[in-house]
Design goal:
The structure is a homodimer of 147-residue chains. Chain A is built from seven helices and three strands, in the order H-H-E-H-H-E-E-H-H-H. With 147 residues, chain A is mainly alpha-helical. Chain A has a single domain, classed as Winged helix-like DNA-binding domain superfamily/Winged helix DNA-binding domain (Arc Repressor Mutant, subunit A, Orthogonal Bundle). Chain A has a three-stranded antiparallel β-sheet. In chain A, helix 1 crosses helix 5. The two termini of chain A are 13 Å apart. Chains A and B meet through helix 1, helix 6 and helix 7 of A and helix 1, helix 6 and helix 7 of B. The structure holds a DNA duplex (23 and 23 nucleotides).
Amino acid sequence: MTALPRVDSARLMELLSVSLAAYYGDFTIAAASENLTASQGKTLNVLRRGPASMSVLATTLTCDASNMTGIVDRLEKRGLVRRKPSASDRRVKNVALTAEGERVIDVIRGKMHHTLAGLGRLDEQEQDTLYALLERVFTAQPAAPRL
Amino acid sequence: MTALPRVDSARLMELLSVSLAAYYGDFTIAAASENLTASQGKTLNVLRRGPASMSVLATTLTCDASNMTGIVDRLEKRGLVRRKPSASDRRVKNVALTAEGERVIDVIRGKMHHTLAGLGRLDEQEQDTLYALLERVFTAQPAAPRL
DNA sequence: TATTGTTATACTCTATAACTATA
DNA sequence: TATAGTTATAGAGTATAACAATA
């Protein structure tokens, strides 16, 4: 691989903010096309990984637990998620996607045309490299080997 | 170089969403420590690149132009930004950071400990590689308007 | 006619505080 | 005592529609 231009940390932080704004905009527009707010879409996206309690949802979305009540209420009213009492701790309510909720979040993901096209500009090896680097930066315990 | 595990596009999209959530959470907490909402902080962050009109701000933040009026009103009331009428088009108002606004957004950026520590896990060559890949994925082809 | 920015409206998101049920 | 979730409240964010000023 040819030598890349040296980039200082501030420029990388700046590009990171631009990149994530682009991703967020893409997601927000896709969610709106399904008549969902960004917070509602993000909640479905988190639940796509599996059921989660109200407090875990709040932590993941970086908001107060009290906010999740209203967000999950509206999603539940539309039949996209459902609350299920935990068997082991009766205080806990686990939230899970319904089949319809699963369908909707998959549609939203498929509508992120800008991001999908951007990833399409990378070949397979470049995608693997990007994956490994992002994992190192944003994941506490990286599973991928060092480059 | 060790071969990296193959990663399909869906897993990469998933990691992007996790990365964004981590970055966004880091930024939101840092902004809150300066008594700013996420939207207010994002506005300052965009303006750190230079003045921008109300409509450009709205496009960059992926929200309706009418929202920017209130956000900029509150930032202006705190002395963090100011509106200046455009010389060439009297309909346009350019928004610029004040010295205090510049100071505050720099403080916020410096408080993004999680993200800064994450980037610190990469050596210089890896940072350059990440920069080049993100630029390919999220920057529009010819010369994206440097915001 | 089209665009920029604002206002008015209704709804959603958000943090804080107080409450309950459970641990 | 501590934690999970809800409720109430006030302030902020959000899209839509309508408007004035300017292009």
